[in-house]
Structures are given as structure tokens and as C-alpha cells.
Amino acid sequence: MQTEAHPLVNKFQLKEDLNPVFPMGVPWVRYFGTYKDLNINIIWPGKDTILGVDSVGTISASLVTYASSLALQPDLIINAGTAGGFKAKGASIADIFLASDVAFHDRRIPIPVFDLYGVGLRQAFPTPNLVKTLNLKVGKLSTGDSLDTSPKDEASIVSNDATIKDMEGAAVAYVADLLKVPAIYVKAVIDIVDGDKPTGVEFLQNLLAVTAALDQAVTEVVDFINGRCLSEL
């Protein structure tokens, strides 16, 4: 979301690409520049061209990841964003998680083998030194296209053994795996899924504070990555 992206754009002193590398007419926005020894691109999916809201969800995430990976040839993808957390799994508001595994919870295909394809379980790129140094929480991430949680979604999330849920991680993982680009997932807990507050209300209530925590965490992750090769993460 724009609220998540712009503080990092300012932090890393990035510039907007006025000659986009993307197809004409898409709303995606690229910010780029150099931070310390790293070339950084932040890709914001932009606003929906009809309704003017942030382009969230798995379709937008997969398209942006695919186009960005082809155009920019990144060494590493960092999917940074907010997520719902489960207090039963130890999550609290503003906790920062690094996802160990990602899967879908709303692609139910009850046919042998297709059921596994629907879940689409994938492992994140391993970063044991990053986790230890920054003392990050680690948990499994489950992805779906709805902000709320239906009973069927909840059952799938439990089956995925997820601690956090979002609306793009597994889509990014699918593309990253397809193109063989290492990817990690940094998520800040913005609402408690198994809490007593409506998801939408809690999301908006915590957006600014949790986004600030996310931006701080991403900065620390980038600082750690700087000067290291992937095998040292």
C-alpha cells in the first residue's frame, strides 16, 4: 500500500521512475536509487484505475512481481507489508515476523494433487543469520484475497499452521519460485485475527503505528543485507 511504501521511499531517498520500465497504462510505480552499497527498487502497485484505491491482493501482487523481476533482474525480493496475526500462535500488534513458509488458504481444489497445487506451499529463502541478529519472530504465512476470514478460510489457515495471514505473500512466492529469484517476507502484525475487534476497524486503527514499525524493521533488514552475499543471510 502507498502508506507502507512512501516512508521507505523517503528513508532510502529514492526517486520515482518517470520513464517506467512497465507496460504503458498500468498503475505500478517504481522508486529507485542507491542506499549504501545496494541498488534498491521499491515497487508500489499503485491505485486501481477505476476506483482509485490501493491495488491490493494476489492478482496485482503476482503481476507486479513478474513484470518487476523480468525488467529489473533483482538478486533478492523483499515482500514487505502488514499482516493479520493469531494470538493463539503468539502474535501481538506491531510484532515483526519473517515468514518461514508461505501458502494459500482460499484456493480449495478437492481433487488429488490439485489440492496441493491450490495450497501452493513454498519455503522462503533461508536467512538464519538475519533472524538471529535482528531477533525477528518466525512463523508460517497464509495468503488469501479477502481481508476478513470465513470459516472455510479459517480451517485452511489452521491446516497451513499459519501464525500470520496476508493478501499477497504466496502470490509473490509463486512468481519468485517460477523465475528462481530468492524472496523473503517481512510482515508487521496490524490486526489480531482471533481477537475480539472487527478486522477492518482494527486495521485502520493500527495502520500508521504498525507501518512505522514495519518501515523500521525493513530498514534494519536492508542494513543487515548491505555488504553481504546471499549465502551469509
TrEMBL record:
GO terms for molecular function: methylthioadenosine nucleosidase activity. GO terms for biological process: L-methionine salvage from methylthioadenosine; nucleoside metabolic process. CDD domains: MTAN. InterPro entries: MTAN, Nucleoside_phosphorylase_d, Nucleoside_phosphorylase_sf. Residues 1-221 form the Nucleoside phosphorylase domain. It holds the Pfam family PNP_UDP_1. PANTHER family: 5'-METHYLTHIOADENOSINE NUCLEOSIDASE, 5'-METHYLTHIOADENOSINE/S-ADENOSYLHOMOCYSTEINE NUCLEOSIDASE 1. This is Nucleoside phosphorylase domain-containing protein. It comes from Rhododendron griersonianum.
